[in-house]
Write a structure and sequence with these properties.
160 residues; Sulfite Oxidase, Chain A, domain 2; four-stranded antiparallel β-sheet; 5 helices
Length: 160
């Protein structure tokens, strides 16, 4: 290998036939572009890791679900309410949960359903009457709506 002198570019890969030289050639290539792409890749990986960490740390506890300010424990909820089967899914009608909170004029409101990851969808009272809260994956199921409305790890149903 050619020794570097004071005028040598530190980014330049020395020529030679050794294994180290071959590995450097594969990783960095012969120009600065490959080195720059490597730096960009590392930045993207670090950014992805930080997003994953943030999502994991800020994830809400899913042992309870709050409906119009009233808190229900997941395990007890399925003992306290009658379950219904719609399109092969068994669960509690979302309208039954709202009715249990003594909300008046339910049809005049919309309902924001929030998952532990912050994802949410807003639905109408008609949707609530046809939607289920299922124990599996602690999620909502709306047989007449797209799966984008099927929210996992539900933590809150807010009246809006």
């Amino acid at each position: 290998m050619k020794p570097m002198n004071d005028n040598s570019n530190p980014m330049e890969i020395p020529e030679g036939n050794g294994a180290l030289s071959s590995i450097k050639q594969l990783i960095f290539g012969t120009g600065r572009i490959n080195f720059s792409l490597g730096i960009v890749a590392v930045i993207i990986l670090l950014g992805s890791l930080s997003v994953l960490t943030y999502t994991t740390l800020t994830r809400e506890d899913t042992d309870t679900v709050t409906v119009n300010g009233k808190e229900y424990a997941w395990d007890e909820m399925f003992e306290d309410f009658e379950t219904t089967t719609l399109n092969g899914h068994e669960g509690i009608l979302l309208s039954d949960l709202v009715n249990d909170t003594a909300l008046k004029d339910q049809e005049d409101h919309d309902y924001k359903i929030v998952g532990a990851d912050g994802y949410f969808k807003t639905v109408s009272w008609d949707d609530m009457q046809n939607g289920l809260l299922v124990k599996e994956d602690k999620m909502t199921v709306f047989p007449e709506k797209t799966k984008g409305f099927w929210i996992k790890d539900v933590i809150e149903i807010e009246v809006v």
